[in-house]
Amino acid sequence: MTAYSYYPGCSLHSTGREFDASVTAVFRALKIDLVELEDWNCCGASSAHSVDRDLSLALPARNLALAQAAGRDVIMPCAACYNRHRTAEHELQSTAERRRRIEATADFEYRPSVHVRALIEVLYDTVGPQALRELVVRDLRGLPVVAYYGCLLVRPPQVTGFDHAEHPTKMGELLGALGAEARPWGDATECCGGGLTLTQPNVARRLVTRLAERAREAGAQAIVTSCPLCQVNLEMRQSGRAERLPIFYISELVGLALGLEESKAWWRMHLIDPRPLLRGVGLMARQAAG
Amino acid sequence: MLIDGRVDVKPDNSLMHRVNARAEQQVELCYHCHKCTAGCPVAQEMRFGPDQVLLLVQLNQQDRLLSSRDIWLCAGCEACATRCPNEIDIARVMDALRQVALAEGVRPADTSSVKFHRLFLFLVEHLGRMNEAGLLGAHKLWTGNLLADLGSGAVMVAKGKIPLVPHVLRDRAGMRRLFSRSLHPAAADSGAEEPGP
Q1: Considering only residues 93 to 132 of chain A, which have any Cβ-Cβ distance to chain B shorter than 8 Å?
Q2: What is the pTM of this model?
Q3: Which of A189, A196, A236 sits opposite B75 (nearest CB)?
Q4: By the CB < 8 Å criterion, does A269 face chain B?
Q5: How far is Cα A99 from Cα A185, in angstroms, rounded to an integer?
Q6: Dihedral sign (CA A51, A52, A57, A63)
Q7: Within A140-288, where are the H helices?
Q8: Closest alpha carbon to A231 in A272, A265, A173
Q9: N or C: which end of chain A has fewer CB within 10 A?
Q10: What is the ipTM of this complex?
């Protein structure tokens, strides 16, 4: 049985609860063990790199030390956590001087033995769309969506690098394997302003509302993401007269297509209820309670 | 400046040197193709925009830049860094400008962001993880913006998405050491830090 270390990050224990629940349910169904890192810490997100570069590398480095001791590659579903940890990995592998500096602040000795993996990376490169297609019991036919990457999964490419920085395709291919209709659109990697949603809500509102408009123009009835900061921002800040689009995590749609019973509990956690849409396209029984 | 009746034209690059050192970038490479500004999601909210921020760094316009809202508006999306033909990571330059502004005690144009980052890191230093209830509540009190997002906040608490009781790391001493070594390397080296567990 394949096994990974699992780093949920702070968001998956709060605003992104359904991301955590769906990721763990999907990996259970795929018979891949996820072992949560013991006593992991916050990556520092955008606050650490705004204030101090050494701190922004030392915080993720402490988790890399935990992953190294556990001896397995570590899955980080949150795009922001993934980006900060990949940045630390990248810097640890850059120059000897930089490595020593990070090692001294985080108090460990780095060995490039285990790696940080994004969720889409593992689903595509390790599991694979073909294997996933064979496990589908409930085809997502009739669900037109757009695959939305946002910034931190693909940029900067020398740090991330598992998909194309400007025209990534792996999430769309995974959605296709589930039977969903991933519509082509031009905004897959445009920023939603998630990092500004509390301090500059009007800026975030403008960016999110435009993304939703572009998704509608592409014929989508929902947006699919792999980032908890994008997801909460897209749910909270959609405005305008058009009906708001539900925002799914990719893991929720994988779980739905695999026929996981747990999926019913995820929809209730959303700020924009996706159940009317799922009922409308026949992916949920109309009389379903709750 | 006139010195002994002659014009002293030696350029003052002190801001660029500090920014380059912090960001590990070479701002002097920018030849102003404006590709960064063309793709910047927040350029329209900015007074200068990313390209002109680089120009102002090159021209040593410290006062204008460090007190500007632009440096706090950057969303850190890295579109500029991905597209720059001279491979300047402009988002990191923005970070460096924030750090210089904080280090020099410049009164920020956007106090909401500065308070947000300070509270965020205070919680991480003392809890080891983020606690949204603490962050949002304290940020509201500190900025006086009590009513913003109260509705969606309440819905999220009801849905169990904003845990009211914080999770606290077991290795809190390690966390505080990590902070003090990062932020005060000299003090940490001289043994001013507290002993390990």
Answers
A1: 104-107
A2: 0.94
A3: A196
A4: yes
A5: 40
A6: negative
A7: 170-177, 201-217, 228-236, 250-257, 263-267, 275-280
A8: A272
A9: N
A10: 0.94
What residues does each domain of chain A span? Answer: 3-118, 127-280
Q: Which phi and psi angles does A36 have, rounded to 5°?
A: -65, 135
> Cα separation of A192 and A14, whole Å?
20
**Tens digit of each residue's pLDDT (9 = 90 or more) over A17-43:** 999 999 999 999 999 999 999 999 999
Architecture of domain A127-280: 3-Layer(aba) Sandwich (3.40)
In angstroms, the separation between the Cα of residue B127 and the nearest Cα of chain A is 9
For the domain made up of A3-118, the CATH class stated in words is mainly alpha
Total length of chain A: 290
Torsion of CA A78, B121, A201, A268, to 10 degrees: 40
Element (H, E) at A249: strand A247-249
Token pair 């300070």 is found at B118
Q: Among A44-53, A170-179, B150-159, where is mean pLDDT lowest?
A: B150-159
Instruction: Provide the shortest C-alpha distance from residue B182 to chain A (in Å).
Output: 5
Comparing CB atoms, the residue among B112, B124, B171 nearest residue A199 is: B112
Residue contact A41–B76, C-beta within 8 A:
no
- Asked if the C-beta of A247 comes within 8 angstroms of chain B's C-beta atoms, the answer is no
Strands B2-3 and A247-249: unpaired
| Angle at A86 (CA atoms; ends A71, A197), nearest 5 degrees | 125
CATH code, residues B2-103? 1.10.1060.10
Q: Do A203 and B42 touch (CB under 8 A)?
A: yes
Q: Is A36 near chain B, with CB under 8 Å?
A: no
Other Cβ atoms within 10 Å of B183 Cβ, number: 17
Q: Nearest to residue B141, comparing CAs of B124, B160, B116, B158?
A: B116
Query: At A60, is the secondary structure helix, strand, or coil?
Result: helix
Question: Which residue in A has a C-alpha nearest to residue B163's C-alpha?
Answer: A14
| Beta-sheet strand order (sheet of A3-6) | A33-36, A3-6, A74-76, A116-118
Give the number of other CB atoms < 10 A from CB of residue B147: 7
